[in-house]
Design goal:
33% of the residues lie in helices and 15% in strands. It is of the alpha/beta class and 648 residues long. The strands form four sheets. Strands 1, 2, 3, 4, 5, 6 and 12 form a seven-stranded mixed beta sheet that branches. Helix 3 packs parallel to helix 9, helix 11 runs parallel beside helix 12 and helix 14 packs across helix 21. The N and C termini lie far apart (65 Å).
Length: 648
């Protein structure tokens, strides 16, 4: 038998201090391997090879394999939640699992890559409904990945049990290619939750004893036909140690830092639950190519990654064929698409950027790290109640949620973050200290939030005039919208018209720095009003943005009252916790808003301060795109029935 005593990664144990990282997968996982072994992976110093291989032999090789605990979003590119390491056939590092680790696994119901649905695939339970129940050939991920191992395992089972029917299934599915052709064998190719299969089977068989850990934790006896697998472990604790013990290392799925396996279980369970939220195949409509990498993560689920189209009829046909759902980018939604989905009985929702987005502008093709998926309307259009508006109107906000919102709000303010996180720092040295300072944030004038949500004041010049009339003695600051300032979108005001109204034009300056120096904000529907609220400023609203009408703003547009008063932290809870979805833009995995704050802080610190977080060459290229290419694209969209209320 293999000696299962661990090789400790530190101290004089004979473990090499460096390895040669052979193969792309090992190089992608370099940081995790180095953290687990305490050794370096480098070509600069001689050392034995490090290989991506599950084989355990006595050769002087560091073998790296996926661990038994993986999230549905894990890959070598994005990081793995656990690794199994061995050197010269012996486990490297790791610790025996804690006594309560089995209870934690059982409670969370994790297995394999956790890409299976919350229920068994269609027809998967049918073979178990006969009078004589079949046995389960539990296909673990390692066996599923090896055609030879799978063939050997199933052939032996069928030969040694001539009167038994088998169902071959597992958490990562069972490949049909290479399985024996036998009427007694039913293969479930799609990933299946093994915890749901265990109670259906007459007996459970595994290819290796470590694969019997989950059935042992569930209290089911398991058989292994391979004599080379060694003796059966004595009890559930021994099964657990064999699968999750020495040689296995846990990692944070987002940062890739080493963490205890119990903590990794909780993080993997969170990601699994997020994955299960996409319970039907998603068809995405109107999503530009540069947005798709992020949107694909948001929309991937047990039925697979999303399908993309730009055409309403094709979207409906795809969704019907997949028993799926349709989600359309709100400003690029074909006019007839909601009606077609309703007629076909398909779930439909609109997508838009969230309120904590990126370091850089969406108009400059900087991908966003948060979205909202709204099955009622969309937050910027008050003509139809949005999911956010209904949540804010009807939801309960328990103390735990508002406390989390307060901490999130305080962290955003302390980290000096905003939606786009662009602009230069250092403002206001020559501003007066004895006058009220009022900020007027300009907007893109063909933006849908202005066109649909600001019924009286619908342009930047009109806003500036209204703000001056309401604040005749104030020191008035006018900040052009970054997209307008960059020349991408309409809304510029001629200098001779701005000069009599504004004391300063503060284009290119950080919105956070400006809010630090202001006392009051006058806006149509700009998110700057919400960012001012969370920083304790007074806000007058000439339109009907999502944050108006709850008793927190001075509402100047007709019909703004919502019929309910909210605390600031209830508003933050609805807008930043309950409504959006978040993506870690480095790990490319769903995350919490708190985790995204870390990434935004890191990205902003790494980027030199600039007016638009956009280089001169890219700026010129984007201006050319908006001037020449986008009008052609809009005409093509119009032919497909996409008549956007936004100029994007």
């Amino acid at each position: 038998m293999t000696d299962l005593r661990p090789i400790e990664p530190h101290g004089d144990t004979g473990l090499p201090r460096s390895y040669l990282p052979l193969g792309r997968t090992v190089r992608l996982l370099r940081a995790q391997i180095e953290a687990a072994t305490g050794a370096s992976l480098t070509f600069r110093s001689p050392g034995p090879p490090a290989l991506w291989s599950a084989a355990a032999d006595g050769k002087a090789v560091l073998r790296v394999a996926p661990g038994p605990l993986l999230s549905p979003y894990d890959s070598p590119d994005s990081g793995l939640s656990s690794l199994r390491l061995s050197y010269a056939g012996r486990p490297v590092g790791g610790e025996p699992p804690s006594p309560d680790f089995g209870d934690l696994l059982r409670a969370r119901g994790l297995a394999g890559s956790n890409r299976f649905a919350g229920s068994l695939p269609d027809g998967a339970a049918d073979p178990f409904l006969s009078q004589t129940r079949p046995a389960l050939a539990l296909i673990d991920p390692q066996t599923a990945a090896s055609g030879a191992a799978l063939q050997t395992f199933l052939t032996r089972l069928l030969a040694e049990n001539p009167g038994t029917r088998f169902v071959a299934a597992g958490p990562d599915g069972c490949p049909r290619n290479g399985t024996p052709t036998d009427p007694r064998l039913t293969v479930i190719a799609d990933p299946a939750d093994p915890w749901l299969l265990f109670p259906l089977a007459a007996h459970i068989h595994v290819a290796r004893w470590d694969a019997a850990c989950e059935p042992a934790l569930a209290g089911f006896e398991t058989h292994c036909p391979d004599p080379a697998a060694g003796p059966r472990p004595a009890d559930a604790a021994a099964f657990l140690a064999l699968r999750y013990g020495i040689g296995v290392h846990g990692f944070d799925p987002w940062t890739r830092r080493p963490i205890p396996l119990a903590d990794a279980v909780e993080r993997v369970a969170w990601l699994r639950d997020r994955f299960l939220g996409n319970d039907r195949r998603v068809v995405l409509v109107g999503v530009s190519g540069w947005k798709r990498a992020a949107l694909d993560v948001f929309a991937t689920g047990p039925a697979g990654p999303p399908l993309h189209t730009m055409i309403a009829d094709e979207a409906v046909a795809l969704a019907r064929s997949q028993d799926g759902r349709v989600q359309a980018w709100a400003t690029r939604c074909p006019e007839q698409l909601p009606r077609l989905c309703a007629e076909a009985g398909l779930p439909f929702a609109r997508i838009e950027d969230g309120f904590l987005r990126s370091v850089g502008l969406g108009a400059s093709l900087e991908p966003g790290a948060s979205i909202v998926v709204d099955d009622l309307g969309i937050y910027y259009d008050p003509r139809v109640e949005s999911r956010l508006a209904r949540t804010l109107k009807e939801a309960e906000f328990p103390p735990g949620l508002t406390a989390r919102a307060a901490a999130l709000r305080e962290s955003i303010v302390a980290r000096r973050l905003s939606k786009y996180n662009v602009g230069l720092e250092g403002v206001g040295e020559d501003w007066p200290t004895d006058r009220r300072i009022v900020l007027v944030p300009g907007q893109v004038e063909d933006d849908a939030s202005v066109l649909t949500g600001s019924p009286k004041v619908r342009g930047n010049l009109a806003l500036l005039q209204a703000a001056r009339a309401r604040n005749p003695d104030a020191f008035l600051l006018y900040k052009p919208h970054p997209d307008v300032e960059a020349g991408f979108r309409p809304g510029a005001i001629p200098e001779e018209e701005v000069r009599p109204l504004a004391d300063r034009v503060v284009g290119g300056l950080s919105i956070v720095d400006l809010l630090d120096r202001c006392h009051h904000v006058e806006t149509m529907t700009s998110l700057a009003g919400f960012e001012a609220l969370i920083r304790g400023l007074s806000v007058a609203v000439h339109g009907r943005p999502f944050y108006a009408g709850w008793g927190l703003t001075e509402d100047l547009a007709p019909g703004a009252d919502r019929g309910r008063t909210l605390s600031l932290d209830a508003l933050v809870a609805g807008a930043l916790i309950l409504y959006p979805l978040y993506l870690d833009p480095v790990a490319m995995k769903p995350c919490t808003p708190e985790q995204l704050l870390d990434r935004l802080s890191e990205a902003r610190a790494a980027a030199p301060p600039s007016r638009l977080a956009l280089g001169a060459v890219r700026h010129a290229t984007m201006r050319l795109r908006y001037a020449l290419i986008n009008p052609v694209i809009r005409r093509l969209r119009a032919r497909r029935g996409v008549r956007s209320e936004s100029g994007r």
